[in-house]
Amino acid sequence: MFCHHCDDSLAGHRYVLRDDHPYCIKCYENVFANNCDECGKIIGIDSKDLSYKEKHWHEACFLCNKCRTSLVDKQFGSKADRIYCGPCYDAQFATRCDGCGDVFKAGMKKMEYKTRQWHEKCFVCCTCNNPIGTKSFIPKEHDIYCAGCYEDKFATKCIKCTKVITSGGVTYRNDPWHRECFTCTNCTKTLAGQRFTSREDKPYCADCFGQLFSKRCTACTKPITGKGGLGSTKFVAFETLAWHNECFFCNLCKGSMVGKGFLQEGENIICPECARKNMNAEEDDQQD
Question: CA–CA distance from 235 to each of 104, 114, 218, 219, 224 (Å)?
Fold first, then answer.
C-alpha cells in the first residue's frame, strides 16, 4: 500500500484514509489539516481541532484575546474576528442598561425605547419607581414617567378643583379652568361661552354683577346696566342719584327730562313748567 499523494510505502506506518485513498501522516497534514488561527501552525491528527466560523485552533491556543483564559468548554463571544471569554466580551462590547449601567446577559429581557434600553426591573417611573412594563409611559428629556406621575407633575390643572384638564378648558387671567368649573362666583352658573365680568378678580355672570354691583335707578330700582347686564347704557346721574334715560321723567307730567333742566323735590324730579304751576297754585292758596 502506497500513499496516494507521495507514493511512499505505508507498510509498517500509520496512515489516514480519505475518500477511500490512503495518505501518510505527513502528506495528510500538509494537504488536509487546518492551520491554527492563534499560532499559525498545522493542527495535526494527534491534536484536537477546535473550530468557529471557519477558524481553527489548537486546544491549547483557544484563548480569550484579552485575558488569555482558555475558552475550552466555556461560553465566548466574537468581535472583529477575535474571540473573548464571556466577562471580557460583556465588559467591552455588550450593550448596557440605561438605568443601572450593567450589561445585558444572555436570555435577559430587554425594554427598548428609541436608542435607549433597560433591564425589565430597571424600566421604572423616575418619580414613583413603579415598574412600567408594558404600560403606557411618557418620556421627558432623559426621564421616563408613568402616566399618573406625568400628569401630576406636568399636566395642566384646573385652578378651582386642581384636577387635570384633559380636554377643552378655559383660560381666565392666565389661569386654567375646566369649562364646568368656570362658574359665576355668586350663582355658580357656568360662564364658558357666556358674557361675564369680574370684580376683585372674581368672575360674575351679567345678571349677578348687575344685581350686586351696578348703580340702581332711583325711579324703577333696577340695576343700570347695558344689554345682557353688561356694557354701557344711557343714564342720568345727579349727585348720589341715577336714572335710566327712559325713567328720567317729570314726576307730575311724565314728560322726559333727558337733556333738560329740572328741579329736585326729594327723590322726585320736576320739570320747570310743573314747578311754576306748583308755585302759582301755592300762591293762590295763600291769597285765599
Answer: 82, 69, 11, 12, 7
Q: What is the spatial distance between Cα 149 and Cα 126, in angstroms, rounded to a whole number?
A: 9
Name which residue leads in pLDDT, 90 or 30: 30
Largest interatomic CA distance in the chain: 179
For the ranges 2-6, 116-120, 139-143, 195-199, the lowest mean pLDDT is seen at: 195-199
Q: What are phi and psi of 283, to 5 degrees?
A: -65, -40
pLDDT at 146: 92
Q: How far apart are CA 98 and CA 144, in angstroms?
A: 11
- How far is CA 93 from each of CA 84, 88, 115, 120, 122, rounded to the nearest angstrom? 10, 8, 16, 20, 20
Nearest in space to 237 (alpha carbons), one of 264, 211, 212: 264
Q: How far is residue 190's CA from residue 123's CA, in Å, rounded to a whole number?
A: 44
- Is residue 229 very low, low, confident or very high in pLDDT (cuts 50, 70, 90)? very low
Distance CA 220, CA 208 (A): 18
Contact 108, 119 (CB under 8 A): yes
